[in-house]
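Quick one:
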Amino acid sequence: MSISTFFLPGRVCATQALRAIAAEVQTPYLFLCLKPDIEWVYLAQERMLQVMEMTDATMVYADHFNKIRDAQGGWCVSEAPVIDYQQGALRDDFDFGSVLLWRTDRFKALVAQMDTDYSFAGFYDLRLRAAQTGEKALVHIPEYLYYEVETDTRKSGEKLFDYVDPRNRAVQVEMEACETAYLKRIGAYLQPGAYLPLPEAGSFPVTASVVIPCKNRARTIADAIRSALAQKVSAPYSFNVIVVDDNSTDGTADAIRELKTKNDALRLTDPQAPELIYIAQDKTWHAIGGNWNVAIHDPRCGKYAIQLDSDDTYHDATTVQRFVDAFESGAYGMVIGTYQMTDIEGNPLPPGVIDHREWTEENGRNNALRINGLGAPRGFYVPLLRTINYPTTKYGEDYAVGLRISREWRIGRIYDVVYNCRRWEDNSDANCDIFAMNRNNWYKDRLRTFELTARLSRQCVSV
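Output:
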């Protein structure tokens, strides 16, 4: 086979490294290996070339096996499938695996187009330009064709926050610049400052509602509710707490009812105490998104709805007031705060404070298509949220709403810590296997595809 193999040390690389490869390679095809010590399945290279010819792809990539050293010095081998590339796969950490077969002429042409010298975003620039050439440019072969050594053995929950680790800030700045340039090239870039007016508020029973969706959180739900009820707001503002239980079977409902009984008794002597509202879902499918929809459409919901996950707590008693102040200071459809990573006891954990500084007033809604989340906790202007609604899903529902709002309305930020994001063994993303991670990543890519399609066609619907 007329194929050359070059080693590129990971998907975070300099433009100059790609230029050097383009200058050297002379064969019609090129293997880029992002890790050393690749072991091939029998006839796998021939299979990748065959698929490339069948599909006229610019680049093909494949599923593989991961090898990890066990305690005895042997190898533990596991399946490591990857997912199909789609239009919205704009996150810079998209996993192609470590072996990429390129057509050399197209590879060279793409590298020749790269007009910015990046220190970190070289490969990201390359594959965005490849994707720009057509829907079938990057083709996934759903077959296990090689073995690679997995060196990052952290749990999924530990890897989740790499992109907001302050140590990676310089990388993220470049990745944002690269993605923004791509959006401008394809016509999906949104100019800063062009926003629709918010819908009229009308009347609400309280200023704000803390919304706590939950399912089987007997160990943590009481902490969350107490944290919400302990909030203090200044007159003329008021708030309540809405807990939506989605058919828990572990004692969660009993804990909610016990706290509600105590709170109802307190309100008999102190009418100014916030009300605790308990909503028990029916047996149909709701998930987190559906539980939010029930809360925001409840007539007792406030003008602003503020998130509190059932295993987290507010940082102190000022969180609700800070959100109200932020909303009242500007025409925001959504406000996002800053959180501190902690253990279940509230002790700080690395990487520490997550403030999502990558969001800027000038470019946040463009950068939102690159990152996997917009931050927490989230607060919403309910008259707007009632026109959008959450998707009825248990993962990515908040990201979907954030993308939709960012397209046409302003999002405000609070850069002081207002929330404790508690990491423990029962977090939904604490230790996902590769199949769950792929499903989650595919769904968020799909959300980006929906949103990117709307931006490309300028489907900006006013309310």
